[in-house]
Structure formats: structure tokens, C-alpha cells
Amino acid sequence: MQAVRVFGLAKLQSSFSRRVSSLVEVKYETIAGKRAQYNVAVVQLNNPPVNSLSRSLLSDLNVTLKNISSSDHHIHGLVIASNVKNSFSAGLQLEELVNTDRNKLSQYWSLIQDCWHTLFTSQIPTVAAIDGHCLAGGVIIAVATDYRIASNGDFGIGVTAARIGVIAPPLFQDNIKHIIGSRQTELMLLQGKVFTPDEALKIGLIDEVHCSNEDIISYACRSLIPFMETDVRARTNMKLSLRSKIIQKMELEREEHNEAFADFMLSPPVQEKLVSFIKTLKKQ
Amino acid sequence: MQAVRVFGLAKLQSSFSRRVSSLVEVKYETIAGKRAQYNVAVVQLNNPPVNSLSRSLLSDLNVTLKNISSSDHHIHGLVIASNVKNSFSAGLQLEELVNTDRNKLSQYWSLIQDCWHTLFTSQIPTVAAIDGHCLAGGVIIAVATDYRIASNGDFGIGVTAARIGVIAPPLFQDNIKHIIGSRQTELMLLQGKVFTPDEALKIGLIDEVHCSNEDIISYACRSLIPFMETDVRARTNMKLSLRSKIIQKMELEREEHNEAFADFMLSPPVQEKLVSFIKTLKKQ
Amino acid sequence: MQAVRVFGLAKLQSSFSRRVSSLVEVKYETIAGKRAQYNVAVVQLNNPPVNSLSRSLLSDLNVTLKNISSSDHHIHGLVIASNVKNSFSAGLQLEELVNTDRNKLSQYWSLIQDCWHTLFTSQIPTVAAIDGHCLAGGVIIAVATDYRIASNGDFGIGVTAARIGVIAPPLFQDNIKHIIGSRQTELMLLQGKVFTPDEALKIGLIDEVHCSNEDIISYACRSLIPFMETDVRARTNMKLSLRSKIIQKMELEREEHNEAFADFMLSPPVQEKLVSFIKTLKKQ
């Protein structure tokens, strides 16, 4: 681990600084609502050039999210963003999916499931501030939050998996359906479609396109106020209830889903296609 | 019970007059469709100043709805509206939720469940004519009907429960999802959001904003014609089938849901928050 | 069976020519994508004057679809369209529903279920090119495909069943919900509503209104390219997973659904209403 960059509240800084790495940075903002002041943790992915979801990044992200979500830190909201220019996250680290064995692949997939679960079930309201490409696994992170803001930039948001022979497994399909409905999910996944921020807004994949000069992270912090001003018990009770089918499915069937994903990914034609796609990328 | 105000068809009047009170008024309109004349019952809530869903109102409403829905009265459609200026219904009577015991709370909640069930499963097409604030429990009444019209006024429609520490339980969440989808349901419930009529139209929470000079109740009566002109057997068969999951859940799990609601509501921090909120309201 | 009209690829022609009839015509187009050339089968219904889904048409359609969907023919996409002016399909052949017995009705319904199942589970991307009225059973065919294009014409799209006393059974309700959500499904079915192409676009019942001078079938063939350019394994895996609940329900409960449909249709009041409706149609 390299030098840890944590800014803001001194007390919080000490409790987190042990756990974050150069790949996942955390800073804190204090936001004034109508009812109170709120502490917001800003988590920034920092894995240049495109914020690939590497094993180390996922592991660090998972620890960070779990820490912030535990209630004893007086954190009221969470922004997930990028510290890399032009990329929120380009998705899975494809190298983790090839020349691997079932055990290693399974561990990697389990990290994704953990991050997703922590975000999707968080008591703390969460927002994704998307200021660059948000593809495949990047979308899985984004849809696990409570609110999605994209800047008005020249980048794409979508799940391209089908184009390179990879699948978005059932649980993530369910999460995407929860956000944009079954028809738009089907179109996006079966065409491997990538949307502009405006198109993504139209289908509900994001909630706002942010156009002003305000920094997207400040803007995202403020977008949490309507959530933070509600009662934490009532809000959390309803959040978990509204998402209960998806959460239960994840908790009961995660091993099974992990196995099915490995079966699909390790089959020779899928491996072949992926290896050849990675070669193409490296030539570019 | 105070003097009963029932207007219209003499025969119908006699059968209902025993059961309605000053809190729930019923009148009848005859509407000309292309195929036939249709009798529409107009049920108006009359509990000033804001049509709180008091125990008495719910009890009277339930009897009224059950009577109208039984087929022997030759009623083809039902409008639910308000007789109180600026308010369709502001929701639950909060006083019923505090300084109470499990038994009383349970009875009160059961009345809400009954009204909702009668409306949601009605063979007769139903429409909500919303001419003023429609909040929390008011929305639960509205989404249990087949069609929602709001006048083009300066009022709000939404479920504010989370703001005051109350929950909209799973069954009502399911009904709202059925109307506006899971994403918009989540946003409304987790932010305690209130929409203008135009905003409510945009997310599908209402079906029409009524702008002309025509009385909203006449307009609502006419909006039932497309439903009333279809075959009652085919229409009812499909209505119950389209809503079967929600109805079955209600019928099988209503006691359990009632218990879970009481558990949540009677917990000390929820009671504390509610008592303090009611005090604030009274000071205003 | 009359003379078979099959055009296009000689090799494909021979394998299909035995199975198609005058009621279901097949021709082939080769389309250039970015990655490859794709062979598209164009299936045209040809049962004037309104493409009623007669027993013979359904039987021929079913064989045709099964043949095309089997992978050994190197077909990459499928267009379903009409060869009859002003009509995609007006729906079920009503005469099959009256003066019948349970056994015959059951066989007829089973043919519909088969066609629907073959289309809905097809590995090959499918599109409906709708160039005229698409009603009731016609909508069931259309929603079973992956993409729906309607020309910008003066015709209607909708499920009118409730108007004539017929039901769209639960499985087809589920398929329609999958496309347009539960609220719009409810409105369409309970009002027996018919939409213009522009209205159908707005609620998502079709995906595009085709306005240019290009032949709608050429246009539909090209609309398959984004699907055909993805990986067949990944795309099919996700398609079947996204639709798994509906497919499983069909496979497990088709007999039961077939029985329930027969029970409803054979009841005396439904038969009476249908006979009288057919008489009205014949007088016109």
C-alpha cells in the first residue's frame, strides 16, 4: 500500500487511515441541511488509467465501505466517485478472468459480490457521481447506490458484456431491472448498449445530468440531503424492504451464482474470445 | 353518526342511507356511454380540516365501499373524492398511532387494510378524483383505485412517512410499485417526497391532470366509461389476475404484516419521534 | 397446402420449402454488419384479409419458427412481418373459440402457446415489423420478439380482448408487463385500449416508429444488427435469464393455464357474447 490520502475530520481520519490505500481514497465533507449538519464520506476510486476493478481495488473498496457503513462513525451519507480523469470505472479487470482457475476466479467474483452487497444494503444514503466512462462492472457499482448523477460530458454509461462474450449475472440483472425496468434492461444487456448521459437520464439509468459549474462531488454531497433529512429507522426499514427480494436472493444463492458464473466464464469458447479481446485492447 | 347526506337514485339511496355517515357521503350520477347508461357512485370523504383517516372515517368508508362493490346495486363505477376544500386526504390520523396499545393499533391498521383490500379487488371500476393534498395514507387510497385524476392545483401528492419516522409497509410499497415501478417508489419513499400534480403525472403516480372548467367529479365519472364499456367478466378476471400477487400476499400475510407494523410503530424511539411531531403540528 | 413461396439462399430454401405454406412465407436477406455478414429470415404472415391466427396458420408458423431457430441453418436473425395490406394480425380466429369442445379449443390454444414459446426463447434475435393493425393475438406475437418497429401509418396496436368478453391469460399478461410495466398493461387490458403507433411508442409497446421511405422489412432487418453483433452465448444466456420467470411459468403451468382458459371461454355467457359479436362482424 502506498501513502494514504485522507482529508477532513481529524477524528474520522484516524479511524479510516489504516484501511484505505492509494487505490481507494476517502475524504469528508460537512453539509448543511435544513434540520442539521451532515457528515458525508467521499470515496474516490484511483486506479489509472480507467479504474479497472482489480482484485486489490475491490478488496480496499470493500473494507472502506464496510467501515463507513458501520454506524459508529457519525457518517450520514456516502459519495462514490472517481479520482481518475474521464473514467468512473471501465469495469472488471479482464485479466482476472483469463488464465485463472476456479478458485481464484471465485475469490475475485466474491469480492464484487461483497462490494455490491455492502453498498446495496447500506443504512447510509449513497450516491454515485459519474464524471467519465461508467461501463459494465462500473454500472454494477453505480446501480447499487441510492442515486446517480452524471456530468454533462462526452462519455458512455452501459453494460457492454455481451459484446465481448461476458455475462452480467442474474443478481446484477435484477438490480438493473429494479432501476430501469425489465424492458430497458433487456435492450441494454442484449445489445451491449452504451448510453450518453442524456440517454441514460431518459431511461432512468441515471437520475440527473449535472450541468452547472459546481464541482460534481459537492453537487453529489448536496443531493444526499433529501435522504439524510428523513428518519434513519423508517428510511432503512423501507429501503431493505423494497430491495428484500434481491438481497435475499444474493444472501441465499451467492455461492450458487458464483459457481454458475465460473462455469460460464471458464468454458473454452468464452476463454478464447476473452483472450483474443484482451490482445486487441493491448494492441490499441 | 350525524345526518346522512345521500343524493340521487331513490332506490340506491335507501339501501345505503343506513350505512353512511357525515364522514363519508355518497351520491349517484348516471353517465351515458356508447353502449349503455352507467350508474356511478360518488364517495366523498368529509372529515375537515384535512380528511385525516380517523378510525370512524375508515370504518364508515369500509362499509360504504363493501356495499357499493356488491353487485346487486347496479352500480357500474365508483369515484372516490373529497368534500373538504384543498385536501383529498392528509393520511393517517397520527393520534391513533401514539399513546395506544397493540390491540387498538392493530384494529386501526386492520381498518386501513380492509378499505385498501375492498378498493383494490373491486369488480367495479374505480377512480380517485384528487382536488387537494393527497399525502401518505391518502396515496394508499388513491393507488388502490384503477385510475387517478388530479386537478391542476397548488397541492402535493406523495408519501412523506419517512420524514416523520413512520413506514409505508411492504404491501403498500408493492401497490405503489405496481403503479410507478420500483425505482420511483424507492425515490418517493426514501426521500419522503411530495410531488406537484404535473410531477406526479410525469412519474405515473396520477394518470391525468384535469385542466378544464368541468367539475372534477363529473370529469372523473366520465373517465370511467372506457372501463365500464368492457365486459365485466373478462375485465374482472384480468384485473384480479394482474394484481394476484399483491392480493394473495395481503390475504395470506395480513396478520403478520399487521404485527410487524405494530412492532415498528410501538418501539420507544418511533413513539418519541411521533409524539414530538404531533406537538409541533399542534403549535402551528 | 398451396404453392410454397420461398426466396433467397438456395441452400436454406431447400431445407425449409417442405415446411412452409401459402399462409407463412419465408425469404432470406443478407445484411452487412461491422463485424460480419448476417443471414436474416423474413417470415411473413399471409392469411387475408386480416391475418387471423387460424389453426393452419399457427401450425405452419410454429414449424417455420422451430426450423429457423434451430441453429444449423446459419440464420442470425428473424423478422416477423405481414404480407397482407394494412394488417400485421387482427388476432385469434374467433370462430375457433365458439361451437367447439374442450379438446379442440385446447389444441388451438396449445398452438398459440407453442408459437409464443418458440419466439420468446429463440436464440436468434427477433424483430416484429408492424405495418398495419396489430390487435389481441397479434400483440402476443409482437411482444414475444426482441424488438418492435411500427410504420408511421393509420392503424391500431392493442389488446381489445376485454371489449368482446375474452381474456388475455396470465402468461401473456406477464409478457406484456415485461415490456411496458404493470401499470400500462393494466390500463391497456382493463380498457381494451388500442394505441396509434406514436402512442404505442410512448408507452414502450413498440420501440421505434419507422418514418423513412425505406421498406419496413429492410429497416427491420437492419435493426437486428446491434443484437447480432454481440456474442451468441452471452446474449442467449442473459436473454433466457432475464425471461426465466415467465418461461418457467409457461413450461410448468401450460396445461393448467390451458385448462383455465378453456374453463373461462366455454362458460355459457362468454360463448353467448362471442357468438353475438361474430354475428355483428359478419353483418359489417
Descriptive tags:
homotrimer, 284 residues, alpha/beta, 2-enoyl-CoA Hydratase, Chain A, domain 1, seven-stranded mixed sheet, four-stranded mixed sheet, 13 strands, globular, disordered N terminus, Enoyl-CoA_hyd/isom_CS (chains A, B, C), ClpP/crotonase-like_dom_sf (chains A, B, C)
3D architecture notes:
Chains A, B, C: Pfam families: ECH_1. Chains A, B, C: This is Enoyl-CoA hydratase. Chains A, B, C: Belongs to the enoyl-CoA hydratase/isomerase family. Chains A, B, C: GO terms for molecular function: catalytic activity. Chain A is an alpha/beta fold and about 280 residues long. Chain A is built from 11 helices and 13 strands. In chain A, helix 2 (about 55-70) packs parallel to helix 3, helix 3 packs antiparallel against helix 10 and helix 5 (about 170-190) crosses helix 10 (about 245-265). The longest helix of chain A is centred in the last third of the chain and has 23 residues, at about 245-265. Chain A has helices at about 10-15, 55-70, 100-120, 135-145, 170-190, 195-205, 215-225, 225-230, 230-240, 245-265, 270-284; strands spanning about 5, 25-30, 35-45, 50-55, 75-80, 85-90, 90, 125-130, 135, 145-150, 155-160, 195, 210. The two termini of chain A are about 30 Å apart. Mean pLDDT of chain A is about 90; it is low at about 1-20. In chain A, the strands form 3 sheets. Chain A has a 7-stranded mixed beta sheet, sandwiched between helices. Chain A has a single domain, classed as 2-enoyl-CoA Hydratase, Chain A, domain 1 (Alpha-Beta Complex), CATH 3.90.226.10. Chains in contact: A-B, A-C, B-C. At the A-B interface, helix 5 and helix 9 of A face helix 5, helix 6 and helix 12 of B.
